[in-house]
Amino acid sequence: MRLEYFELIDRIIDIDLSAGTIRTEAVVPHESTVFEGHFPGYPLMPGVLLCETMAQTCGWLSMAKLNFTRMAFLAGFKEVKLRTFVTPGTLLEGHGQLLHEGSGFTRLRCQVLAGGKTVCDSELSMRLMPFLNDAFKAMVMDRAARLSFPFAALESPEANNA
Amino acid sequence: MSSTFDTVANIISETCDIPREKITAQSHAIDDLGIDSLDFLDIAFAIDKAFGIKLPLEQWTQEVNEGKASTEQYFVLENLCARIDDLIKAKGA
Q1: pLDDT at A159 over 60
Q2: Which residue of A has its CA nearest to B15?
Q3: ipTM score for this prediction
Q4: What is the pLDDT of residues B18-33, one digit of tens each?
Q5: CATH of the domain at B36
Q6: Which domain holds residue B42?
Q7: Does domain A3-150 have CATH number 3.30.420.10?
Q8: A65 touching B (Cβ < 8 Å)
Q9: How many Cβ atoms sit within 10 Å of the Cβ of residue A33?
Q10: I need a labelling partner for A53 at 20 to 30 A (CA). Which of A148, A156, B23, B79 fits?
């Protein structure tokens, strides 16, 4: 997790396009300028960054569902719950579930867990739009590779029907 | 058509917090009801779920942007409901 680069996920553990699920993981860094302000002497992972962790988890699932023919942008949260504090060094696991694939959007449910316990959860909407250009798509695909995106999952019949 | 309209009007009312009595078959979702594209995603999600269909929003948007269709064709509620009925029929065919 590199907070300063807004990279909230370290690795995509697995993705199942037929089930519409994804699992991601990330370790909250021990040190970050974010913690110098949030809060001095009492570092806590900001809730908005936990929300972004859910958004990025669901974004990868949404793009994979469409075989990376569209870029996913966060459009909305519904009923976000931040259930407990998250401190530096915590290993987080993101679980995303596709609820609906609409025309140009997806609706998903996501939760982030630490030590098997839910630390936050929400329903999310993602807007799906064509990539800005080839260079932008190449950047996204490069980032997917760095996150160990399981590209073999895209070769499933489910993905090829996208 | 009438039951489709009632369902759609209820969805719009609940999703956008618009009084139900203000929503008529002749209402334009954008111009009259002030629904923006983000709210329409929530409405489309609810409509898709309620009727078991997939509103072709991307296609409609493209047609409007290219001048091949007017927004009235898709976003006046009686027209929207007619298209929903067509999609329901096509699903059952």
Answers
A1: no
A2: A78
A3: 0.88
A4: 999 999 999 999 999 9
A5: 1.10.1200.10
A6: 4-92
A7: no
A8: no
A9: 9
A10: A156
